[in-house]
């Protein structure tokens, strides 16, 4: 596992220490169900979203466009039947400057994901790809694992977990 030279320096634990009295939902912590599969462990950036179900058309379109340091949060409805990201899309995301992908669903091609210079978190590995039918929506608010994530939020992921905030931390 490699960490990009430009890997940001922050601590999700420190963020949570500073916000542990916050009951306004300014800092949201994603449940610990996301595994780390990418070549970058710590990543952060402003959020873009895709909402889809067993169809990664919009995920492909997003990672093939300039990422500009953003984190793509994919609400795949936690499907355990199709993989929304594989080696090709991971490489595209790295090449186009995405900081990371957080997938509420499955990914595949673990050997290729681990060599991609991009953060990749997902619920699980699964070898079956989607069939692209042009479905899905981009940049809508999504609720993943019970937590709201909106386009323009900031997401921070490190070895301890993933937190989301309405403003940069
Ligand atoms: O193309 C897909 O649907 C997913 C995949 O396997 C890849 O990204 O390599």
Automatic annotation (TrEMBL):
Keyword Lyase: yes
Organism of this sequence: Paenacidovorax caeni
Pfam families with a match to the protein in the record: RraA-like
EC identifiers of the protein: 4.1.1.112, 4.1.3.17
A GO BP annotation: regulation of RNA metabolic process
Residues involved in Mg(2+) binding: 109
Gene3D superfamilies per the UniProt record, alphabetical: Ribonuclease E inhibitor RraA/RraA-like
Top-level taxon: Bacteria
GO molecular function, one term: 4-hydroxy-4-methyl-2-oxoglutarate aldolase activity
Signal peptide: none
Function (record text): Catalyzes the aldol cleavage of 4-hydroxy-4-methyl-2-oxoglutarate (HMG) into 2 molecules of pyruvate. Also contains a secondary oxaloacetate (OAA) decarboxylase activity due to the common pyruvate enolate transition state formed following C-C bond cleavage in the retro-aldol and decarboxylation reactions.
Assembly information from the UniProt record: Homotrimer.
Ligand binding (substrate): 86-89, 108
PANTHER family from the UniProt entry: 4-HYDROXY-4-METHYL-2-OXOGLUTARATE ALDOLASE 3-RELATED
Catalytic activity: 4-hydroxy-4-methyl-2-oxoglutarate = 2 pyruvate; oxaloacetate + H(+) = pyruvate + CO2
Cofactor: a divalent metal cation; Mg(2+)
Protein name listed in UniProt: 4-hydroxy-4-methyl-2-oxoglutarate aldolase
Group of enzyme by EC: lyase
Transmembrane segment boundaries: none
Record keywords: Lyase, Magnesium, Metal-binding
């Amino acid at each position: 596992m490699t960490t990009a030279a430009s890997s940001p320096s922050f601590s999700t634990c420190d963020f949570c220490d500073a916000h542990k009295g916050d009951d306004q939902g300014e800092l949201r912590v994603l449940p610990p169900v996301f595994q780390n599969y990418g070549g970058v462990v710590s990543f952060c950036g402003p959020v873009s979203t895709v909402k889809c179900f067993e169809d990664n058309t919009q995920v492909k379109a997003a990672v093939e466009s300039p990422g500009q340091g953003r984190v793509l949060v994919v609400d795949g409805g936690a499907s355990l039947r199709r993989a929304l990201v594989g080696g090709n899309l991971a490489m595209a995301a790295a090449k186009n400057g995405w900081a990371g992908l957080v997938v509420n669903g499955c990914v595949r091609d673990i050997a290729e994901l681990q060599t991609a210079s991009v953060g990749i978190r997902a619920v699980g590995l699964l070898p079956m790809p989607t069939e692209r039918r042009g479905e899905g929506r981009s940049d809508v608010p999504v609720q993943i694992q019970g937590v709201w994530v909106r386009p323009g939020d900031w997401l921070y992921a490190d070895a301890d977990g993933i937190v989301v905030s309405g403003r940069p931390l």
